[in-house]
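Hi X.,

You mentioned you wanted examples for the new student's onboarding notes, showing what a folding record looks like when two proteins sit in one file. Here is a clean example. The first protein comes first, with its sequence line followed by its structure tokens.
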Amino acid sequence: MMNVEWPLTSMLARLAGPARRALLELGNQVTLRTGERVLREGEDGDAVYVLLAGVVKVSAVGGDRESLLAIRAAGDLVGEMSVLLRRPRSATVVPCVETTARVLSGTAFRTYLHNHPAAAIELAGMLGERLRWANDRRVDVAALDARARVRRVLVALVESFGRPVSRGWDLGVRLTQEDIASLAGVRLNTAEKALRELSRGSLVGLGYRHVVVHDLDGLRDPIGTSEIRTGNGSIGRARGKLDGTPRPAEEDARP
């Protein structure tokens, strides 16, 4: 695991070699089963998970429904907020696929940060990026129409996890249309309608828990001139942009 090329946005990619090696030597390696509730919202917790392979969903309950908040993949941390704040878990974490991780105690994690100040700075940067992503989604809810929010989430997923395939970009994670609706902050039927429209326009291809983006530039383009709601309730036009480019990956041989 020492020589793995971690995704550029992940915590492990942020760390310098010695700090990364020190973190990966802590705790024990575990295998997390698909669908297993690794962390439960509201429970006390004193463990941090360093994801080595696989993908997990982060969700929380609001009112009478559970909403998907984020996706975490190889190189990311989960559980660190509860350990740092010494408060109950703020979300539930469930693997989408069999996932490998190193699990370490809260004491070990805090000691590690004390001994590696540069890692603590990188952790602050990672948490800042997560907050920025969450703030962007809140702005989207206030400013963009529902279809534009679905487009923006698809672009963000490709930029974070996507891998090139023969006809475009695979999202890199298996998500239901309900998951996409949760991330976009729209109703399920609205997300379904938006995805069907994108499919008819040949921008995306749809399958069971599977979305392929055929035309990433075309998906981005309407975001740049999306209709937005202004403060007085009228509809205006605004420029928008998502930063970042998809991380490189091997070509998928599937047709």
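Then the second protein repeats the pattern, sequence line and then tokens:
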Amino acid sequence: MPIRIRVVTPHVAPVPAKLREIEDLAEGGALQLSQVNIADGPRAIESPADEHRCLPGVLARIEEAEAQGLDAVVVDCFADPGVAAARERVAMPVIGPGEASLHLAATLGRRLAIVTVLESVRPMIDALAERTALGPRLAPLRVVDTAVRELDADPERLLARLTEAAARAVRDDGADAIVLGCTGFLGVSDALARALAAQGLAVPVIHPLRSAVLLAATQVRLGLRHRAARPAR
């Protein structure tokens, strides 16, 4: 039986390329991946206000996935909106890409750098750093000043901005692992790693969504689940 993982995107804007980012992880059918957007909410997660607006829709989609018999859910946002709350509502694994990718990065480097979209997401990343207890190992946050909905508008320009930001993190801040701080950075992690290596800055580049999908599959295979605390209804 394949492991069925639902990716819940916490906004209403369709992202047809999202599954293409992770389809190679399906391992010849060992994983069955599906994706849904929330029914109502923001068009992107670019601020704490957006995060707050998406929460009811995220929780509804996660409870729906459990009712449909899915094995695990990944919330498709680096800020991990609704993950902690969902773990109180469902018994299946619920994985946040931010948490997953930062902990993976911590096994690959001592000084970790997050490269993200906009300065407005800083409060959410600060909260993530506190939740993961990895704040002391984080280099200063780097941003590419590109809105989430514009990430696919000019792939070459985006790669150039990511390369510049990541190179500064390695050269100036001593980072030895780069974490992409948005799940909307699609199809760029390998190219970014190559661009850095070409400058003599070979460091691992971690994509949060891919990390989260494989962590979800690992938890299912090992039979591990969080301690659910379902509130009385």
